[in-house]
Amino acid sequence: MMSLSPSFGSPYPWLKELKSEERGLYLIHLLLTCANHVATGSLENANLALDQISHLASTDGDTMQRIASYFTEALANRILKAWPGLYKALHSTKLSVVSDEILVRKMFFEFFPFLKVAFVVTNQAIIEAMEGEKMVHIIDLNAAEPTQWRALLQDLSARPEGPPHLRITGVHQVKEVLDQMAHILTEEAEKLDIPFQFNPIVSKPENLDIEKLRVKTGEALAISSVLQFHSLLAYDDELLRKKSPLTQMNSNGVNLQRVLQMNQKTLGELLEKDLVKGYSPSPSHDSASSPLSATAKMDSFLNALWGLSPKVMIVAEQDSNHNGPTLMERLSESLYFYAALFDCLESTLPRTSMERLKVEKMLFGEEIKNIIACEGVERKERHEKLEKWIQRLDLCGFGNVPLSYYGMLQAKRLLQGYNCDGYKIKEENGSVVICWHDRPLYSVSAWRCKR
Known about the structure:
Structural class: alpha/beta
C-alpha cells in the first residue's frame, strides 16, 4: 500500500514570486496534474501536487486561489475515501446544521440573479398558461423561497377576469421551511382576497409519493422544478454500476490524454484573456453529441409527472456537464463552471466578506466535493446541459414551449437592473440561458404534455 507520509520538496519559495496570471495558470496545471495522479492511483505524486497547491491556494485570495482551495479539498476527499475507516474518523464529528444550509441558499438567492430570473420566467409562463382558468394548482418541487409565489399572487390578483382559486403544493425536506412558506403565502392571499390553499409535503424529490400531490379533476396544473431533476440521475448510475463492475474500474482514467490536450489549448487561451473570464466550453465535450444514458428512476419520475397532465412545467437547471463518467472530464468541466460563479462574487462582494466565504464554502465547495469526490448514489450534483434535458423530456412525452417575448423581456430587464456587466441572457431552443460573459451557467425551459 502506498504511503501517505509528507514528501520532500516543500516549501517552494519560487511559487511566492509568481504573478497573479502565472499563479492562476500554474494552479490549473497543478489541479489537472493532481487529478490525473488521483485517477491513476499515484498517491505519492498526488500528495506532492496537493502540497504545492497548498502554497498557492487561499480561501480569501483571488478567484483562482479560492476555487483551487475547494478543488484540492475535493481531490483529497476522493483519496481518503479509499480508506473508509480513516475517512469516517476524520468526518465523524462534522456538524451539518440545517439552518446554516437554508441560510446559505438564501444568500445564493440574494447575491446572484439566477433564481430571480428563473422565478420571473416561471411566473410569466404560468400566468400565460393559466389565462381564463378558475382553479389553478401549482406543484413546487423545491419550495424554499416564498418570494416567487408572493409575486405570482400579486400578478393573479390583477387579472382582468379576477384571480383564480389557487392551490400550491410545496415539496421540501425541511418541515420548518414549508411552515414558513405556508404562513407568508396565506397571509398574502388573505390581504389580496384570493382563495388559497397550501399543501405541504415533507420529502426529497427522489422519495416523493406522487399520490400525495392530490391533483383534483378540474384543476389546471403547473409544475415548477428549480435545480431538482439532476439529483435523480444518481439512482440510475448506481443501478448501472451494480450491473457492470467494470464501470467503477474505468471511471477515472478514460480519455485522459484527450482531456489533457484540450486543457493545454485552454491554458493558452487564458494567457490572452483575463484569467477568470471568458471560459469557453470545449467542443470535445459537446453533451448533445453523446447518447443519453439509461435513466429508469428519472424516466419513471418524469412519466409520473406527465401522467398528471400539467398545462405547463418549468424546469431550471445548471447548464453544464458535470455528469461525465470520468474524474478528469468532471474536473475539467466543473472547474470552468465554478470559476465563473466565483468570478461573479469577485465582481460584487469584497474578498473579506463573510457572506461570500459562506456561499463559496458551504454551497459551491460542497457541490464541488460531491462532483469530484463521490460516485454512485452519493454523487447527487449531476448537472447536465440544456440539450440533454431537451432530449430526456422529449422522450418522456413533453414538448418544449418557447418562452414568450414578454417573459424574455422581463428576464433581460431584471439583469439590466443588476448593475453588473458580466451577466448576459441568451435564447436557446426557446429557453433562457443565463451566462457570465459567454459562459452558460443556468437554463430555464418550459414544457407541456405532448398528446
